[in-house]
Write a structure and sequence with these properties.
This protein has about 325 residues and is of the alpha/beta class. Helix content is about 50%, strand content about 15%. The protein has a five-stranded parallel beta sheet with strand order 2-1-3-4-5, sandwiched between helices.
Length: about 325
């Protein structure tokens, strides 16, 4: 992979150079500040970096602002960004992930840890490349017998330009980081699109990803004013982590989201109106839990929303069956 490391400490850059050389299979470029990094990225001859390693505390432009600037560049909107920083306070963690960070590594770190994180990054790069190819191939296939590629139903999808929405891998890393800091008042909860398997089967990859993005934007707008992060986890499910001791009223939120969905009127490429509604699961508190149990809480919230969606469909089927038998 081609990696750009940004840090104002020459000792850290030298150490990273030694680490990456020891790991092998990677090409490291260095920048001594945010402005230097941007100048390199804006150079027409600069490589398409596969990964960024960014410090947070730097003069003039900190790592959070640099991350935001990188994410605004179309060619790096999906590129993994690892924050390498001594800043462990929760406000820095929150700001980094909200800005678009993929992972967060505290200094000092070992070469084995860096190697493990970069291996995960390689997997992310490969998976995203496959999904992006599917989406844009489907977008280009407009008529005729061209094969329509589908995203797998269980696959997370990257969502762009929606407030407080991050990649699901980043969400997992964020929650893992929370387990090493304070989680007082934190909770996780989820929403699942009803009949998601039917939507998935009826749509191309591009239509499906567009619908997921539209629903994400409506959920994000509904949660506006709250401190939260959200990610699409696959299977039509959006997982949220919220702060400040807020225990959400899931029924009220679900009704508000579904009202917005009905007013927005989503359509497929054929101009047909899509009936898209969500079900809400139960919120799960994250107070004083280990990393393992925090991950389990994320999965529990995910499963709760999917179970609520399935229960709703069974109830609807039972209602119509009863009406036919009456």
């Amino acid at each position: 992979m081609k990696i750009l490391a940004v840090d104002d400490d020459p000792i850290i850059l030298e150490l990273l150079g030694q680490f990456v050389e020891a790991i092998g299979e990677h090409e490291l470029t260095m920048a001594t500040c945010g402005r230097d990094a941007l100048e390199q990225l804006q150079d027409a001859n600069s490589p398409d970096f596969d990964c960024f390693l960014i410090d947070i505390q730097m003069p003039e432009m900190d790592g959070v602002e640099l991350t935001q600037r990188i994410r605004s560049m179309k060619r790096f909107v999906d590129t993994p960004i690892l924050m390498l920083t001594a800043m462990s306070a929760k406000r820095y963690v929150d700001a980094a992930f909200a800005a678009g960070a993929t992972d967060y590594v505290n200094k000092p770190f070992e070469v084995s840890e860096l190697k493990a994180r970069l291996s995960l990054v390689e997997g992310i790069v490969d998976a995203r490349r496959v999904n992006t190819n599917k989406i844009f191939a489907a977008k280009a296939a407009v008529t005729g017998d061209s094969p329509v590629q589908q995203l797998e139903l269980h696959e997370p999808i990257s969502i762009y330009d929606v407030e407080n929405v991050i990649d699901y891998t980043a969400m997992q890393n964020y929650v893992a980081q929370l387990s090493r800091t304070t989680m007082f008042g934190s909770a996780t909860f989820a929403f699942t699109i009803r009949k998601i398997d039917e939507h998935h089967m009826a749509m191309s990859a591009f239509e499906y990803s567009s619908m997921i993005s539209d629903v994400a934007e409506i959920i994000s707008d509904t949660l506006a004013g709250r401190q939260f992060l959200m990610a699409y986890a696959g299977n039509g499910t959006f997982v949220c982590v919220t702060e400040s001791g807020w225990r959400p009223d899931m029924e009220a939120l679900m009704d508000e989201i579904n009202l917005s969905l009905s007013q927005t009127e989503l359509y497929n490429n054929a101009g047909e109106l899509l009936y898209v509604r969500v079900s809400a699961g139960e919120p799960v508190r994250l107070i004083w839990q280990s990393e393992q149990t925090v991950m389990e809480a994320l999965s529990k919230a995910h499963a709760s929303a999917e179970a609520a969606s399935a229960a709703y469909e069974r109830a609807q089927d039972g209602f119509w069956l009863g009406e036919r038998l009456a």
